[in-house]
């Protein structure tokens, strides 16, 4: 390959000129999480289809240093940190959840389901601390790490594809386009369920919190049709004036004015300070949104691969996103020459809600 061709390939892989994480995974990233605010240094954690979880230290200048890696027998679908940042939990297609102690660099199996484990979340409440795991076996379980048996097992109507927690609320996005709401206060209890207003299966979900009280106020989700749906009031899921949706991650076909290519929304995250939203899609772009004004703050240049996952660090200064093939176009579009990558972007100013000027 000529020097010019190499340069063009590099530009296509990173058209936004963001910091590239060193030694990325060998296969597509399926989970991406920054360390919690309780950890003084910033670390980035990933899980992926190469059966590995990897951890990098992130420097002040955007440089990254690989720190550790652990493997499981099958792809890792989700990862999460313990509240103090000393442990990592890895949810896998092998129906297990392993705990990775970072100080000793040792792992142990702590949880199991009867089907692949799709999500895991660390839960801290005034009365208990646990790991919540969700699975394609149509259950979610709460685990006290001091016991080998789950503290609670709850049957759900369908397989769990995605979930998010904003204490005391947890929302499960299930197969057949369903959403199930549970209250985690005291003994977890069902607080409601709805069918998705979208005609297409959802892929990701995020809970919105009040900037002052930090209580959940609403949620949003992305689906396979390149659409974001927003519920601004968590208590009025069916109130149409509180809900809206908009098209994103779609591109007009050149020369065909009435036709678009439509791409899945692979992930959405809420900025921890501003409350604005980031979305990433199979079209290879990320975008920032203000849900209150229903406007787009910015959209990225197009990468040479889909963007599969994203996250913010604890103070909202850094936006991380991963690129890699997501098989949305089938095996014939897989290009082994295109390798998975993870990028870091300073985002605090870009995520700020824009002030709308008024004139007399």
Automatic annotation (TrEMBL):
InterPro entries: WD40/YVTN_repeat-like_dom_sf, WD40_PAC1, WD40_repeat_dom_sf, WD40_rpt
Swiss-Prot/TrEMBL keywords: Repeat, WD repeat
Highest taxon of source: Eukaryota
Identification of the protein by name: mRNA export factor
Segments of this protein annotated with the region Disordered: 1-25
Segments annotated as WD repeats: 110-153
Xref: Pfam families: WD40 (PF00400)
Species: Acyrthosiphon pisum
């Amino acid at each position: 390959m000529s020097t010019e061709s190499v340069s063009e390939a590099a530009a296509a892989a990173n058209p936004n000129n963001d910091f590239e994480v060193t030694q990325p995974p060998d296969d597509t990233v399926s989970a991406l999480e920054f360390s919690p605010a309780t950890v003084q240094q910033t670390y980035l954690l990933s899980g992926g289809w190469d059966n590995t979880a990897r951890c990098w230290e992130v420097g002040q200048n955007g440089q990254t240093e690989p720190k550790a890696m652990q493997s499981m027998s099958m792809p890792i679908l989700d990862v999460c940190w313990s509240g103090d940042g000393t442990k990592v939990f890895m949810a896998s297609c092998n129906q297990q959840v392993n705990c990775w102690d970072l100080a000793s660099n040792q792992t142990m199996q702590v949880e199991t389901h009867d089907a692949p484990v799709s999500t895991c979340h660390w839960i801290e409440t005034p009365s208990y601390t646990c790991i919540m795991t969700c699975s394609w076996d149509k259950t979610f379980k709460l685990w006290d790490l001091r016991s080998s048996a789950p503290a609670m097992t709850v049957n759900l109507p369908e397989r769990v594809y995605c979930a998010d927690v904003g204490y005391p609320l947890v929302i499960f996005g299930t197969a057949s386009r369903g959403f199930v709401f549970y209250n985690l206060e005291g003994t977890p209890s069902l607080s409601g369920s709805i069918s998705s207003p979208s005609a297409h299966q959802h892929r990701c979900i995020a809970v919105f919190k009040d900037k002052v009280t930090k209580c959940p106020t609403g949620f949003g989700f992305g689906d396979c049709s390149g659409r974001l749906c927003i519920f601004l009031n968590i208590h009025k899921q069916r109130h149409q004036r509180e809900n809206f949706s908009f098209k994103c991650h779609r591109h007009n076909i050149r020369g065909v004015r009435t036709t678009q290519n439509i791409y899945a929304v692979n992930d959405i995250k809420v900025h921890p300070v501003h409350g604005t939203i980031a979305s990433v899609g199979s079209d290879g772009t990320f975008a920032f949104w203000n849900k209150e004004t229903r406007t787009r703050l910015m959209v990225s240049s197009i990468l040479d691969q889909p963007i599969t996952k994203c996250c913010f660090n604890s103070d909202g200064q850094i936006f991380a996103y991963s690129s890699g093939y997501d098989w949305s176009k089938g095996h014939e579009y897989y290009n082994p020459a295109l390798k998975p990558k993870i990028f870091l972007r300073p985002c605090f100013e870009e995520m700020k809600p824009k002030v709308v000027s008024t004139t007399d």
